[in-house]
Design goal:
Blueprint: H1 8-18, H2 20-32, H3 35-40, H4 46-53, H5 57-69, E1 73-76, E2 80-83, H6 85-88, H7 98-105, H8 107-112, H9 115-121, H10 125-130, H11 134-139, H12 142-154, H13 162-165, E3 172-176, H14 182-190, E4 195-200, H15 205-215, E5 221-225, E6 238-242, H16 250-264, E7 270-275, H17 285-298, H18 305-315, E8 317-325, E9 329-336
Parallel strand pairs: 3-4, 3-6, 4-5, 6-7
Antiparallel strand pairs: 1-2, 7-9, 8-9
Length: 337
């Protein structure tokens, strides 16, 4: 019987995928222990990090060896580790990715542990683990809710590019389902004569208020506690739906669109959807991965551009323009028909 040589390149790719979760958990562990901040403060040897974290020096050494190999840190445990642009993004500072790393390494990592059952039943892994849907769980857990909102804020890499792609000068925009208000903050910082109405559920509004007060102030902001599936504020020239539709059914999404149309009250307003869209032809990893992540966390999904066009039409909108934004995000600009 002939011996068949293993395709070493393919085998390495398989191993890299299989061990991806280990790498993520090592990064989470370093953030949980506060290592990026400790190194930034000069406590940068194995012994110093162990003393500061309460961990064993050998454990720290083995963890840090991998993270150096991954490019998260530089140096070594004897002469001292140094930070990198990657570790700088994981410090306990505003606009870092720290809270995102913690949430994804804890609750969301647990949710992914139910991937097989979730894919088989289309039930969110988070709900399987915690016994209730994500947003219901968040509404009863203030600390986790704030971490979730901060993680959403951390994932806002494309927000600064929205004012470049969409003319908002002198306009009032409504940020529907605004979360911590990071999109609003980015727009108001870039467009001095724009004004905002910020809508989210009452338990989220205090998070948005604190964030906006500390960044752009509240003089051009109206905060509204409510539910976008029931109504949205009137008087907007532009209505943004940014990363808030994936967890809802098609019928519910059409209802939100209809609420926006009603709030426009016949004015020449625009509805702008900011989401990742998926495609079955030549799919790319990030939207496809995030689509599955939505299934694991809230039972949701990303939609195709064709599906959004169909749902908008059901609510009385037509797509005017589609614009690509960074991080594989798409702006779908729609007008009343």
């Amino acid at each position: 019987m002939a011996v068949v040589k293993v395709d070493l390149k393919a085998a390495q790719e398989v191993v890299d995928v299989i061990t991806g979760g280990w790498r993520a958990q090592c990064l989470y562990t370093a953030v949980k222990l506060g290592i990026p901040d400790l190194i930034g403060a000069g406590r940068n040897t194995d012994d110093e990090l162990a003393a500061a974290t309460g961990a064993q020096p050998e454990g720290i050494h083995r963890l840090m060896r991998l993270l150096v190999a991954m490019g998260v840190f530089e140096g070594d445990g004897a002469t001292g580790y140094r930070g990198t642009p990657v570790s700088d993004l994981l410090t306990d500072t505003p606009d870092s990715l720290r809270e995102m790393c913690l949430l994804y390494g804890e609750e969301f990592y647990t949710a992914w542990g139910h991937a097989s059952q979730s894919i088989s039943t289309l039930t969110a892994g988070f709900e399987i683990e915690y016994g209730e849907p994500l947003y219901q769980h968040l509404s009863g857990n203030a600390e986790l809710s704030e971490r979730f909102q901060l993680a959403m804020k951390a994932g806002s890499l494309f927000f600064d590019y929205v004012p470049e792609a969409i003319d908002l000068a002198g306009k009032t925009f409504v940020d529907v389902g605004a979360g911590p208000g990071q999109l609003t903050a980015a727009i108001l910082a870039a467009v001095p004569d724009a004004r905002a109405k910020v809508l989210d559920r009452p338990h989220v509004i205090p998070v948005a208020e604190r964030n906006l007060r500390s960044t752009v102030g509240l003089d051009r902001v109206e905060l509204v506690g409510g539910d976008m599936t029931e109504s949205v504020p009137e008087g907007g020239d532009v209505y943004f739906l940014c990363r808030v539709l994936a967890g809802w059914s098609d019928d519910a999404v059409v209802g939100v669109f209809a609420n926006c149309l009603a709030a426009m009250a016949g004015s020449p307003s625009r509805l702008i959807i900011l989401e990742r869209v998926v495609t079955d032809e030549s799919p790319t990893v990030l939207p496809s991965l995030w689509d599955l992540h939505l299934l694991m966390t809230n039972g949701g999904r990303h939609r195709t551009l064709e599906k959004y066009t169909e749902l908008l039409a059901r609510a009385g909108f037509a797509v005017e323009k589609v614009t690509a934004l960074p991080a594989e995000t798409t702006a779908i600009i729609a007008v009343p028909r």
